[in-house]
Design brief:
This protein has 103 residues and is an all-alpha fold. The protein has 2 helices and no strands.
């Protein structure tokens, strides 16, 4: 609830300050932001940052996948060391614990 209230207060302050500055100031800020974003050096830096983020997410995805495969039994492949303990239905229950009674 506190975060919603702070968001609302920030929104109100931004609205009040924006309305006082007027449309002309808004257009001036918009043009300046467009010039900065169109700058070739900014574009190059954004490309480098994007490539690094993509590389980091790939590494993180691989690490999380490896940890999940070792810690979560249902993520293991059938050639894993515990594959012979589970039945072929894919439920993950060992053979001795299957129930035959209807639900």
């Amino acid at each position: 609830m506190r975060y919603r209230l702070m968001f609302g207060v920030g929104l109100a302050i931004g609205y009040i300050l924006g309305s006082r500055a007027g449309r002309e100031r808004y257009e001036q800020i918009k043009r300046m932001a467009q010039r900065v974003s169109d700058n070739p050096s900014v574009q190059e830096a954004a490309g480098l940052v994007g490539a690094k983020v993509s590389q980091a997410t790939g590494v993180a995805r691989t690490k999380v996948s490896d940890v999940a495969k070792h810690r979560l039994p249902f993520m293991r492949s059938h050639d894993s060391w515990q594959a012979e303990k589970h039945d072929e239905t894919g439920t993950g229950w060992p053979e001795g614990q299957k129930t035959t009674a209807p639900y």
